[in-house]
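Issue: ligand-bound run for acetyl coenzyme *A - logging full I/O for the record.

Environment: standard queue, default settings, no custom constraints.

Inputs:
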Amino acid sequence: MAKDTVTITDNATGKSIEVPVLRGTHGPPVFDVGTVYKELGMFTFDPGFTSTGSCESTITFIDGEEGILLYRGYPIEQLAEQSHFLEVCYLLWYGRLPSAQELSDFETIITHHTMVHEGLRDFYAGFHRGAHPMAIMVGVVGALSAFYHDSLDIHDHRSREISAHRLIAKMPTIAAWAYRYSRGEPFMYPSNKLGYAENFLRMMFGFPTEEYEINPVAAKALDLIFLLHADHEQNASTSTVRLAGSSQANPFACISAGVGTLWGPAHGGANEAVIEMLEEIEDARNISKFVAKAKDPNDPFRLMGFGHRVYKHYDPRAKIIRKSCYDVLDALKLDDPLFDIALKLEEIALKDEYFVERKLYPNVDFYSGIIQRAIGIPTNMFTVIFTIGRTIGWISQWNEMIGEKGLKIGRPRQLYTGEATRDYVRIDRR
Ligand code: ACO
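Outputs:
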């Protein structure tokens, strides 16, 4: 039988080394290049990490060829259908489904952490009224480390757990307040009588002067959006959180770094960009013009919400969200012309050779804005909603890394192509 190794040969020197092949539960094997520099004096080179596994993880698995997504082994379709966001938070953090008692205790803990320190409230006043809510999120989430000193010991398991509870619980409050601040409206404190998504809706849209009536369709749809965004293995923001955490920075600082990364339009910012694109298309008759622009190599325009580094198949989350769009619009008796444009755009793109050849399918961001619009979430809050959902994934991945034996600081190398060594020239001689 062939040995479970890969041979790497430097043809210039003829020197060969054998490196071990590692196999996970699912997915392609990897070969461990940890000894390559020591043995061959070379680094591997992989900008964008298209062929590089950066860690071992037990949390989430994606099969991009088949369009499969598992959280702790459970298919996303089953969780979307039968579970709910806080149960999924428990699953991602603790690694298993809770008993009824464990879930109820967990929900109570999260509910009782939803308030934020009053001092943190004052931070909001320092932001420009026109600030993007994601800019406020980056600042306020980072500032949590200045208020919760008692859970910053990253080497203490219990301390990490408390930080995780705080982050999951406070994120909707921080997010809703970012929105209220931009509107000049009063901050609503959380209510312990309400569920996670319900609480967020009330903090977003309620007023202290009157009762806020929760729309169960909106709460369910939002809970689903949180659940579908909860984790996605080593994406850009999660990798950022891990890299920041590898320096042993505190969890709030690491999550704030993740929030900043998520904001970009190539990542979580795409949901906002999709709606802007659909609005710009305006009419289904203009779709072909936009498809042509997306295909033009000289035009930087891309179909937002299309394509994915890992999925070369329909993103399973997009499939679930697309179905939910029909359900939500139907239940709320809404007709959204942007949904019709999105459906038509998908149909045209999926028949187009350019998209077929490159295996470009709708990703999670393509339809999520349609649901969010239907339940009244403004476009500039879409990435904030993504942030709330993804917080559990970030903190679980961070916790997994911190818990590893022999944690190493993340420190990639480079191919230097700058000037060769040269002597400094005094200013009067230049
Ligand atoms: N529209 C048009 N062409 C595209 C698109 C798109 N949305 N996405 C990829 N392509 C093309 C590229 O131009 C490239 O073509 P080429 O081979 O002729 O040069 C080819 O498909 C491969 O694209 P890459 O950029 O190399 O793929 P990569 O894996 O690096 O990028 C990404 C993935 C960033 C998601 C990309 O598909 C994209 O920009 N999509 C639009 C933004 C988006 O929806 N982002 C959200 C991603 S999901 C998430 O983060 C939640």
